[in-house]
Amino acid sequence: MTDTTVMLVDDQDLLRTGMAMVLGAQPGLRVVGEASDGLAAVERDAELRPDVVLMDVRMPGLDGIEATRRIVAARPEARVLVLTTFDLDEYAFGGLNAGASGFLLKDAPPAELVAAIRTVAAGDAIVSPRVTRAMLDLYRGRLPDAGDARRPSSLDSLSEREREVLLAIGRGLSNSEIAGELFLSESTVKTHVGRVLAKLELRDRVHAVIFAYENGLVGG
Predict the structure, then answer these.
(1) pLDDT score of 144
(2) Burial grade of 153 (CB within 10 A; 0-12, 13-18, 19 or more)
Protein backbone atom coordinates (compact mmCIF):
# COMPACT_ATOMS: atom_id res chain seq x y z
CA MET A 1 0.00 0.00 0.00
CA THR A 2 1.46 3.35 -1.00
CA ASP A 3 1.99 6.15 1.48
CA THR A 4 -0.29 9.18 1.66
CA THR A 5 1.85 12.13 0.60
CA VAL A 6 1.45 15.48 2.36
CA MET A 7 2.62 19.04 1.68
CA LEU A 8 2.81 21.60 4.51
CA VAL A 9 2.00 25.26 3.80
CA ASP A 10 2.54 27.82 6.58
CA ASP A 11 4.58 30.97 6.95
CA GLN A 12 5.81 29.86 10.38
CA ASP A 13 8.90 27.65 10.08
CA LEU A 14 8.48 26.28 13.58
CA LEU A 15 4.93 25.14 12.95
CA ARG A 16 5.90 23.38 9.73
CA THR A 17 8.78 21.67 11.48
CA GLY A 18 6.53 20.48 14.30
CA MET A 19 3.91 19.09 11.94
CA ALA A 20 6.59 17.41 9.83
CA MET A 21 7.93 15.66 12.94
CA VAL A 22 4.46 14.48 13.98
CA LEU A 23 3.52 13.22 10.53
CA GLY A 24 6.92 11.69 9.85
CA ALA A 25 6.42 9.37 12.80
CA GLN A 26 3.13 8.03 11.43
CA PRO A 27 3.06 4.86 9.33
CA GLY A 28 1.62 5.42 5.89
CA LEU A 29 2.15 9.20 5.88
CA ARG A 30 5.02 10.96 4.12
CA VAL A 31 5.76 14.69 3.99
CA VAL A 32 7.04 15.41 0.49
CA GLY A 33 7.37 19.19 0.57
CA GLU A 34 6.80 22.51 2.31
CA ALA A 35 5.93 26.07 1.30
CA SER A 36 5.92 29.32 3.26
CA ASP A 37 3.41 31.26 1.15
CA GLY A 38 0.50 30.70 -1.22
CA LEU A 39 2.34 31.27 -4.48
CA ALA A 40 5.06 28.80 -3.55
CA ALA A 41 2.33 26.35 -2.50
CA VAL A 42 0.71 26.47 -5.95
CA GLU A 43 4.04 25.95 -7.66
CA ARG A 44 5.12 23.13 -5.35
CA ASP A 45 1.75 21.41 -5.65
CA ALA A 46 2.06 21.31 -9.44
CA GLU A 47 5.53 19.82 -9.05
CA LEU A 48 4.91 17.34 -6.22
CA ARG A 49 1.18 16.50 -6.66
CA PRO A 50 0.70 15.52 -2.99
CA ASP A 51 -2.38 13.62 -1.86
CA VAL A 52 -3.13 16.17 0.89
CA VAL A 53 -2.15 19.82 1.36
CA LEU A 54 -2.22 21.33 4.85
CA MET A 55 -2.94 24.98 4.07
CA ASP A 56 -2.65 27.97 6.38
CA VAL A 57 -5.02 30.72 5.22
CA ARG A 58 -3.38 33.77 6.76
CA MET A 59 -0.11 34.30 4.91
CA PRO A 60 1.58 37.33 3.35
CA GLY A 61 1.34 37.72 -0.41
CA LEU A 62 -0.99 35.12 -1.93
CA ASP A 63 -3.25 33.91 0.87
CA GLY A 64 -4.33 30.34 1.49
CA ILE A 65 -7.82 30.81 0.08
CA GLU A 66 -6.60 31.89 -3.35
CA ALA A 67 -3.86 29.26 -3.24
CA THR A 68 -6.50 26.61 -2.48
CA ARG A 69 -8.67 27.85 -5.34
CA ARG A 70 -5.78 27.67 -7.80
CA ILE A 71 -4.64 24.24 -6.64
CA VAL A 72 -8.11 22.70 -6.85
CA ALA A 73 -8.78 24.35 -10.21
CA ALA A 74 -5.57 22.91 -11.65
CA ARG A 75 -5.87 19.56 -9.91
CA PRO A 76 -9.49 18.69 -8.95
CA GLU A 77 -8.37 15.53 -7.17
CA ALA A 78 -6.29 17.60 -4.71
CA ARG A 79 -7.39 17.42 -1.10
CA VAL A 80 -6.75 20.57 0.94
CA LEU A 81 -7.10 20.88 4.72
CA VAL A 82 -7.45 24.49 5.84
CA LEU A 83 -5.52 25.38 9.00
CA THR A 84 -6.56 28.23 11.27
CA THR A 85 -5.98 29.53 14.79
CA PHE A 86 -9.65 30.29 15.43
CA ASP A 87 -12.68 28.00 15.28
CA LEU A 88 -14.83 30.97 14.25
CA ASP A 89 -12.91 32.42 11.32
CA GLU A 90 -14.79 33.80 8.33
CA TYR A 91 -11.53 34.05 6.43
CA ALA A 92 -10.91 30.34 6.86
CA PHE A 93 -14.46 29.43 5.88
CA GLY A 94 -13.70 31.06 2.54
CA GLY A 95 -11.27 28.22 1.98
CA LEU A 96 -14.13 25.74 2.06
CA ASN A 97 -15.91 27.58 -0.73
CA ALA A 98 -12.60 27.68 -2.60
CA GLY A 99 -12.54 23.89 -2.73
CA ALA A 100 -10.93 22.79 0.53
CA SER A 101 -11.99 19.42 1.92
CA GLY A 102 -11.86 20.34 5.57
CA PHE A 103 -11.14 22.80 8.32
CA LEU A 104 -8.75 22.12 11.19
CA LEU A 105 -7.50 24.13 14.14
CA LYS A 106 -3.73 24.56 14.33
CA ASP A 107 -3.76 23.47 17.97
CA ALA A 108 -5.59 20.22 17.20
CA PRO A 109 -4.01 17.21 18.97
CA PRO A 110 -1.61 15.19 16.80
CA ALA A 111 -4.03 12.26 16.68
CA GLU A 112 -6.78 14.55 15.32
CA LEU A 113 -4.43 15.98 12.70
CA VAL A 114 -3.40 12.51 11.53
CA ALA A 115 -7.02 11.29 11.46
CA ALA A 116 -8.07 14.34 9.45
CA ILE A 117 -5.35 13.73 6.85
CA ARG A 118 -6.32 10.08 6.49
CA THR A 119 -10.00 11.02 6.20
CA VAL A 120 -9.59 13.52 3.36
CA ALA A 121 -7.03 11.31 1.63
CA ALA A 122 -9.70 8.60 1.53
CA GLY A 123 -12.03 10.99 -0.29
CA ASP A 124 -14.18 12.16 2.61
CA ALA A 125 -14.26 15.61 4.16
CA ILE A 126 -13.85 17.07 7.64
CA VAL A 127 -16.92 18.90 8.88
CA SER A 128 -17.14 18.65 12.65
CA PRO A 129 -20.36 19.63 14.47
CA ARG A 130 -18.46 22.49 16.13
CA VAL A 131 -17.40 23.91 12.79
CA THR A 132 -20.86 23.33 11.34
CA ARG A 133 -22.39 25.32 14.18
CA ALA A 134 -19.78 28.06 13.77
CA MET A 135 -20.57 28.29 10.06
CA LEU A 136 -24.28 28.60 10.79
CA ASP A 137 -23.74 31.26 13.44
CA LEU A 138 -21.37 33.20 11.20
CA TYR A 139 -23.64 33.21 8.17
CA ARG A 140 -26.90 33.73 10.07
CA GLY A 141 -28.83 36.50 8.35
CA ARG A 142 -27.19 35.85 4.99
CA LEU A 143 -28.86 32.49 4.46
CA PRO A 144 -32.56 31.94 3.72
CA ASP A 145 -34.97 30.69 6.33
CA ALA A 146 -35.71 26.98 6.08
CA GLY A 147 -39.37 27.78 5.51
CA ASP A 148 -38.85 30.51 2.93
CA ALA A 149 -36.07 29.22 0.70
CA ARG A 150 -36.77 28.34 -2.90
CA ARG A 151 -35.68 24.77 -3.43
CA PRO A 152 -33.33 24.13 -6.36
CA SER A 153 -34.72 21.66 -8.91
CA SER A 154 -31.82 19.26 -8.27
CA LEU A 155 -33.36 18.45 -4.88
CA ASP A 156 -36.27 16.82 -6.69
CA SER A 157 -33.89 14.09 -7.85
CA LEU A 158 -33.25 12.94 -4.28
CA SER A 159 -35.19 10.09 -2.76
CA GLU A 160 -36.79 10.64 0.64
CA ARG A 161 -33.94 8.73 2.31
CA GLU A 162 -31.31 10.69 0.43
CA ARG A 163 -32.95 13.94 1.54
CA GLU A 164 -32.81 12.73 5.14
CA VAL A 165 -29.12 11.97 4.72
CA LEU A 166 -28.49 15.43 3.23
CA LEU A 167 -30.21 17.10 6.18
CA ALA A 168 -28.10 15.03 8.59
CA ILE A 169 -24.91 16.00 6.75
CA GLY A 170 -26.00 19.63 6.98
CA ARG A 171 -26.28 19.25 10.75
CA GLY A 172 -22.68 18.04 10.87
CA LEU A 173 -23.35 14.37 11.62
CA SER A 174 -20.74 11.76 10.74
CA ASN A 175 -21.62 8.60 8.80
CA SER A 176 -21.72 6.58 12.03
CA GLU A 177 -24.02 9.15 13.67
CA ILE A 178 -26.30 9.18 10.62
CA ALA A 179 -26.37 5.38 10.67
CA GLY A 180 -27.46 5.39 14.32
CA GLU A 181 -30.11 8.05 13.80
CA LEU A 182 -31.63 6.49 10.69
CA PHE A 183 -31.12 2.85 11.74
CA LEU A 184 -28.91 2.04 8.77
CA SER A 185 -25.52 0.41 8.35
CA GLU A 186 -22.54 2.70 7.82
CA SER A 187 -21.93 1.18 4.39
CA THR A 188 -25.51 2.02 3.39
CA VAL A 189 -25.07 5.58 4.65
CA LYS A 190 -21.85 5.91 2.66
CA THR A 191 -23.72 4.79 -0.47
CA HIS A 192 -26.48 7.35 0.16
CA VAL A 193 -23.91 10.11 0.74
CA GLY A 194 -22.23 9.28 -2.56
CA ARG A 195 -25.56 9.43 -4.40
CA VAL A 196 -26.47 12.76 -2.79
CA LEU A 197 -23.15 14.29 -3.84
CA ALA A 198 -23.47 12.93 -7.37
CA LYS A 199 -27.07 14.05 -7.89
CA LEU A 200 -26.45 17.54 -6.52
CA GLU A 201 -23.06 17.77 -8.30
CA LEU A 202 -21.26 18.58 -5.07
CA ARG A 203 -17.52 18.06 -4.61
CA ASP A 204 -17.68 16.55 -1.13
CA ARG A 205 -19.27 16.64 2.30
CA VAL A 206 -18.11 20.19 3.01
CA HIS A 207 -20.02 21.47 0.02
CA ALA A 208 -23.07 19.44 0.98
CA VAL A 209 -23.10 21.38 4.26
CA ILE A 210 -22.75 24.69 2.44
CA PHE A 211 -25.50 23.62 0.01
CA ALA A 212 -27.84 22.76 2.90
CA TYR A 213 -27.27 26.16 4.53
CA GLU A 214 -27.50 28.22 1.35
CA ASN A 215 -30.78 26.54 0.40
CA GLY A 216 -32.40 26.89 3.80
CA LEU A 217 -32.49 23.17 4.53
CA VAL A 218 -30.80 23.65 7.90
CA GLY A 219 -31.98 26.33 10.26
CA GLY A 220 -30.35 27.95 13.27
Answers:
(1) 45
(2) exposed
